[in-house]
Structures are given as structure tokens and as C-alpha cells.
Fold this protein.
Amino acid sequence: APEQIQGNVPITRKTDLYATGCLLYEVLTGETPFIAENPAEMLMQHLNDDPYNVREKVPECPLALDGLIERLLAKNPDDRPYDALAVHTELTEILRKAQEVVSDVSPQAITATGATATVDPKTGEVKPKKKKKKDQSAFYETTWFLVTCLGLLIAAGVWLAMGPGEDSLYLQAKEAMNTTAEDSVVKFDDAKRLYLRPYLDSYPAGKYVTEVRNWLDVAEVAILEDQAERKAKGKREGRNRYENDCIAAFQAERDTERNLLESIEIFQTIINSIDEAARQPVNESAAKESDAAAATATSEVDLVDNPKYWRLIAERHLASQKQAFLTHSERTRIATEWMTVIEKLLTSDARDEGRKRMALFRDAFRGEKELEAWLDYAKYRQEGGPAEMPR
């Protein structure tokens, strides 16, 4: 653990939790959190670097488990869970959630048939309860009774194989999507795995399919945004250009020393580039294949490479940053500083870059009456005409 390497703080139970995080990471991914050519480099990585998230290597890992391991591997002992009991409690809850669909449905299914059942707490397997032997009675040995019991068990097995009905699965998905901000990413991940994807897989033409697809979009955006935010915090590269652009925008958004208009420009660039790619002529059959792939995408790679989700993320952050700029008490100073930088480009060999950035400013704030003077200025300067900055 970092505190063992540095030797500047006491060794506590939190040190063992760091080791537990390393062990869980290797169990799930097949490799240690850090890989180095020599011990010295390995020690420096434990001190200064953040490992890749487990979900980046094992996409099917529940988000809650990924987050727990990330906290176990925190550099600061105070950021780790309180003790081993707390970790045990979280792992138990993660296991419970992974089994809750079977645990919730199975007893109801069996009860509906008139039989009884138990759920194995370790595997989630549904097993009929063994009947206690009472007295030797011809009643239990009669053919009609045995055939009836067999029929009930077969009916229960068929019901379980079919899974919950469409209405039941929809209501479970609806309840799961009523989430709160503080733990929304974990709940969205659970909703996606347990209800939204199962619904779309089982009922591709169901009566709630439009609503469920919209919920799935919300969940995917929240999950991808959280992954990009964590990469921005850990200063790691994204998996494609969309994620890299979002990471750059998040870093600019978080840095109070940087001009507020910088993140706005990056988010607007993401939106424009995605829209431009969508306007490019494509082969009709290729377009149909692309649409079908987007509608049925299930892997992490498919989702990361889908520009629709990155555009939604950029739109949301752009709206928030625009509001922050429009209500800022020093809005004029911020705009003046930003436009001064662009003016230097316009009067140099990089004038095309300057015109492009003026256009991005106009795209981001188009229709904003409060910035009408600045928009006029940007228009004239983009077209090469003379203009003075508003005061």
C-alpha cells in the first residue's frame, strides 16, 4: 500500500483493505493492478498512478463491485472503506442484487402452481422443498397424486424458464429508473443489466419498448459519463476520439484557472463533429446495418463507439456551462479574454483556426439575446470584417 511504501503514516486495517483490493482486482481481471519491469517502477505506480477500472477489462463486472475495488485501491487510507466488515456488507449486497431477479420471481411462480420452493443463497438456484416423510400411506403412492405433482413441477419449471411477464418486467424497470442523484450510476447499471436489457431481449416488439429504450439511453449515458469522468480525474486516455474529447472538456470544466469558454468550445466541437459525420452520404445498405447494430448493441465496445451517447453527454454539459457563463458576474471579462486569444489567431498564419473558433462561439450561443453584441462581433470577425469587442 502507498502508506507502507512512504512510511509516513501508521499501518492500520486500511492497509489490509488495499491488499484486498489488489487481490480482488487480480481475481476478476487476471492481472495485478499495476504491471512493471522492475520493483522500483512498481512501487512508484502504487504511489502515483491509478489502475484501469475493472469494467474496462471485464465489462460485465457490476458497477457497484467496480466502484468498491476502486475505493479499496484509494491512495489515501481515509478514502477506503471503514473496515473488512464494511467490505463484507457491500459484497453481500452486490451478490444479493445479482440474484434478486431469481429470488423475487421464483417463490411467486412456485406458489402460483400450488407447490413450494427454496432458493439456494449461494447459486440463486430454485429447488423444490423436499417433503418430510410422515407415515406410509397409499395416498402418496397413488398414480394420480404422483402425476399431479409431476405436472405442477413441470408447470413451475416452464414458468421459470419463461421468466417474468412483460408487465412485471416493465414495472420493475420503471421502479429501478426512479433513482436519486447520489447513487444513480450504480442504480442505472443495475437497471440496465437486470431489467432494461432483459426486457428488450425478451420483448423486442413489446408494448413498452419505446419507453424502455429511452430509459436504456439514459442509463447508458450515465454509465459512459461516469467512466469518462473517472478517466478525466485519473488523467487517463479514452477509448476513442469522442471519449478523449469529453475527457478534455471535463478537465477544462473542473479547472477553475481556465477560461469558462474553453470547455464550452470543446463540447460544441464534439456536437458539431458528430453532426457533420451524420450528414456525410453513406451507402443505404450500410446505413441500415449501422442502425440495426446500434439498436441491438450489447457489448461495451458497441456502446462506447456509439456517437449518439457522447452527443447527449456533450449537450447536457454544454447547457450547464452556458448557464454558468451567462449568469457569471464577470461575463464580459471572460469573453474579452477569450476573444483576445482568438484575435491573435486571426492576425497570424492561423487565421483559419481563428475563424473556426469564432464559428464555434456563434454555434454555442446562437439565439442568446444577452450576447447579441458579442455574436455580431464574432460574425464580422469570422467573415474578415473589422469590429470592436463589446464593452
